[in-house]
Task: inverse folding
């Protein structure tokens, strides 16, 4: 009888101790504290703030996969605010016109087609601002073209660096409250030009700004750009 009472008392003690704990085993009453998988990030002044660090880019136009292809892109003519080079000032960039041509400014496209894009850059703050200088492939700064097939092409590749569009060749710092007309030229293969593409600018913070470029000549300055390229 004494052994039976001892066994009952011991069992009751174990049960009580178990209930007193917040978790007696997997799935117990305890809760785990995990950081949120969607931590907030600081906003960038550009329309798209994804980092292009993993984006492959090259000047030859060889096949590469652009991880930002699924990102939303602005339409031609829509401005985007970007951070100026050396993190100074705010530069509003507006791609305005695209012209496709086999020859421009006395130069023939090495790969088949020049895509000439004009932009209007405006300095919005009290400090003069400038575009981020081009880097290899445009992935760390400057401009690049993402073709419909996913290939990435840096500005000025092939014979594009030899093309100058008079009147759209602004360079250097833009003073507060003023603007410049500039142009970006890409030397594209038929496949890279087919169906238009996505124009990408990477600013001083590494943020990307994207615009969807039509497959045909478009924009208010198209006729003027053609005339200047032919002269």
Result:
């Amino acid at each position: 009888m004494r052994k039976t009472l001892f066994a009952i008392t011991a069992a009751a003690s174990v049960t009580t101790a178990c209930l007193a704990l917040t978790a007696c085993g997997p799935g117990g009453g305890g809760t785990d504290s995990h950081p949120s998988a969607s931590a907030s990030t600081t906003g960038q002044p550009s329309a798209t703030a994804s980092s292009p660090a993993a984006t492959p880019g090259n000047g030859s136009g060889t096949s590469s996969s652009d991880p930002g292809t699924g990102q939303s892109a602005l339409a031609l003519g829509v401005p985007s605010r970007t951070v100026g080079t050396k993190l100074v000032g705010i530069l509003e960039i507006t791609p305005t016109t695209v012209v496709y041509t086999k020859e421009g400014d006395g130069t023939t496209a090495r790969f088949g087609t020049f895509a000439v894009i004009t932009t209007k850059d405006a300095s919005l703050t009290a400090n003069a601002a400038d575009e981020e200088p081009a880097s290899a492939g445009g992935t760390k700064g400057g401009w690049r073209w993402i073709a419909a097939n996913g290939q990435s092409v840096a500005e000025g590749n092939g014979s594009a660096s030899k093309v100058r569009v008079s009147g759209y060749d602004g360079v250097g710092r833009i003073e507060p409250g003023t603007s410049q007309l500039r142009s970006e030229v890409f030397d594209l293969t038929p496949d890279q030009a087919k169906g238009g593409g996505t124009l990408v600018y990477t600013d001083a913070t590494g943020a990307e700004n994207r615009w969807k470029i039509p497959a045909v000549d478009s924009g208010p300055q198209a006729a003027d750009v053609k005339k200047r390229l032919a002269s």
Residues 2-20 form the longest helix (19 residues). The CA atoms of residues 66 and 129 lie 28 Å apart.
